[in-house]
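Q: What changes when phosphoric acid mono(formamide)ester is included in the input?
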Amino acid sequence: MFKNLLNLSDLQEEDVLKLIELANNFKDGEVAAYRQENLFPDKTIATVFCEPSTRTKLSFELAAHNLGAKFIDFDLTNSSIQKGESLEDTIEAMAMMGVDVCALRHSSSIIHDLAERFPQMQFINAGEGSVAHPSQGLVDLMTIQESKKSFKDLNISIVGDLDHSRVVRSFLEAIALVGYSTLTFCGHPDLCTSFVDTPVGNFEPDLSAAIQDSDVVMALRIQNERLESKLTIGAADYIDRYQINVDTLQAAAPDCILMHPGPVNIGIELDKEVLELENSKIKNQIFNGVGMRMAILTSIFSQA
Ligand code: CP
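A: The predicted holo structure follows.
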């Protein structure tokens, strides 16, 4: 289906739907767990994470183990990178040692050059600055499909720090493949400069108006680590205007689902109470992360 997973815009609708089906097929019907399969004992995946992660890295690790593949969690802080070796030379050394797949998270868009330079390896984009996070986009579609009959009828609202979100960019590529009804973006103007005048949806500065009749509300955290200057809004005012809580969710459709890719700044973009609502799918997103990464690895390992 695809040699590398770099951007979701490289995929077709049928690729995405097949990945979701495959991910669901790995679920153990009896319990909230995944089946253990010994499908790829000759394959090795290394995670190279140059930015922090919990969900993505651990789910690739669990996915590799569930598929019977060998897994290496490359520790940059204790590697020869600390002696001045470049990341390029590090990846080349991995290729020479027989690593088949590299799942890379990096603040810059270097993965595309690496994939060209080392065609003997396969690459998965596990987070590229504020640009792309394709495996998360697939997890999000999988989670929506569990609750909603059709993508094409959905009114979707995305609220929060849109400018710095690689998740939203990959989600937009994903949802463009399967279809939707409306897309509404909401957030403080300091954090939404690229979305105020977007051709793919509407920008609505008022939270209640933005989530009015929404079928899916996706919240995003403020990425303090990527802010170049101090926000012109204080924390209390931000919470007052943009926090999603039980009251603000009243404006959404009655069966609206709430999503967040995590990690959540509890008490900032989301009130703690909404995490436990029946229609909160945030924990489902975490669980689906393992199955979707099993599906991605199965597809990638099968292409070699
Ligand atoms: N959603 C996501 O990418 O989370 P992590 O940063 O914990 O991997």
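Observations recorded in class: Residues 53-56, 127, 133, 136, 261-263 surround phosphoric acid mono(formamide)ester (CB under 6 Å).
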